[in-house]
Amino acid sequence: MSTDALRRLTATEFTLFLRDKVGPIFGVLFPTALLCVFGNIDFFTDPANGIDGQPLLHTYTPILVGFVIAMLALNTLPPTLASYREQGVLRRLRTTPVGPARVLGAQFAICLATAVVSVILLLAVARLAFDVPLPRQPFAFALSALLAALALIGIAVLVAAVTPTAKAANAIGSVLFYVMMFFAGLWLPIQAMPAVLRHVSEATPLGAAVQALSDAGAGHWPPAWRLLLLAGYVVVTALLGIRLFRWE
Amino acid sequence: MTTVIEVQELHKRYGDTVAVADVSFRVDEGEIFGILGSNGAGKTTTVECVEGLRRADGGTIRVLGLDPVRDRAELTQQLGVQLQDAHLPEKLRVGEALDLYRSFYRTPADPAALMAALGLDEIRGTRFGKLSGGQQQRLSIALALIGNPRVAVLDELTTGLDPRARRETWRLIEDVRARGVTILLVTHFMDEAERLCDRVAVIEAGRVVAVDSPAALTKRAAAELGVERATLEDAFVALTGEHADVH
């Protein structure tokens, strides 16, 4: 297997990702557009309405980072992987020296790279246009985002593994996206949730991720159990995904 | 003559269903060897074991001296495959597909020459999802040959092609063979087998009922049916029908 093949495969998958438009529009442009809408509503920028003395927009920035990751992982990966299996794309690759696993690898790399670009865009616009401070503990922020992305990719593979068709994978991915975004605080920030709901939220992958991102944004390391919980989701979904995913 | 494909006492089950009971045949270098059989006779399972896509439950298979499962990495370099119902991503263009698959192999063929031979030039910028059935089929043949394989397995080669495209494809396969490529052809078209194949194996209910040249099979069928001339279809029906015991 030459590196040329790997590069060509990744470049081709990336071209298809751009041509499909769902990822670039909903995973990159949409979250930042949402930030701009929130940023132009006084309610979100007035510290008087905020949580812990900071404007709501500051609370929402890590939620939108979670939104980017969930959007890219849950709304683009499951239908792509399921359709590749359904249409025999993976089967066809099994007969070549490259094999099908590297296509999945290319898909994960594209998902992660796009998430990095999208999060940087989001944070830059938040900082430059709306005075939201950049994460004060950048390393913890990056680590939390990476763990969150890997956990969500793991869940995406599980969705693709248990759904027979691209249509079903798309539907289940979307439903999971909304459920996870609810627990991540898109409609009601976790800090404002009643105690029971807050505990449930903090146990979900995206809820834990947004809390870890908030901690890091405010300048301190998230508690170890939060990062371990995210790492646990990564390991469990990866192991289950490897066991359950079928090439045909 | 060197044996390129050797299948001995192949056996394959799916749960309780026996897909291939006992199949043996040898394919020599430079041959076009046909596998004929009704739907569900075990043709596709047999070639999937040859390709290494499925693991045999019994028997041995060697392709160019390689074990299709154990020596997968090397075999895929030398074996070109055209599958039934395997598609490409909808938005991938014809030229991109060939460039991509070309990069997988050590000593690939020239994509320009292949595209010209298969009439893919004028659609090189077309997306896979917009191709007609025949165009998809031609691309699929091109991808089977892009690695410059020593052996090509073609499953239902001309299904979905119009008569002109079928004849062009047959000519192409003969050209490919003239370059020394050994071809294993799975088909249920008797005219195709008669035109292209040096020898055929007729498979019925997971067993080989005859291996011979189309001419020898038709001659034998004519004698058995008491007619002056029989077609390969007559021979096939006689071999695979209720009178399969006559031979």
TrEMBL record, chain A:
Residues covered by the ABC transmembrane type-2 domain: 22-248
Major location category of this protein: membrane
Keyword Transmembrane helix found: yes
Membrane topology type: Multi-pass membrane protein
Subcellular location: Cell membrane; Membrane
Keyword Disulfide bond applies: no
InterPro entries cross-referenced by the UniProt entry: ABC-2_transporter, ABC2_TM, ABC2_TM_bact-type, ABC_2_transport
UniProt keyword annotations, A-Z: Antibiotic resistance, Cell membrane, Membrane, Transmembrane, Transmembrane helix, Transport
Residue stretches spanning the membrane: 21-41, 61-82, 103-126, 138-162, 169-190, 224-245
PANTHER family assigned: DOXORUBICIN RESISTANCE ABC TRANSPORTER PERMEASE PROTEIN DRRC-RELATED, TRANSPORT PERMEASE PROTEIN
Family statement: Belongs to the ABC-2 integral membrane protein family.
Designated name of the protein: Transport permease protein
Automatic annotation (TrEMBL), chain B:
Subcellular location: Cell membrane
Keywords: Antibiotic resistance, ATP-binding, Nucleotide-binding, Transport
Superkingdom field: Bacteria
One Pfam family cited in the UniProt record for this chain: ABC_tran
Membrane disposition: Peripheral membrane protein
SUPFAM superfamilies: P-loop containing nucleoside triphosphate hydrolases
The ABC transporter domain, residue ranges: 5-230
Cited InterPro entries: AAA+_ATPase, ABC_transporter-like_ATP-bd, ABC_transporter-like_CS, ABC_transporter_ATP-binding, P-loop_NTPase
Gene Ontology MF annotations: ATP binding
SMART domains in UniProt: AAA
Protein name: ABC transporter ATP-binding protein
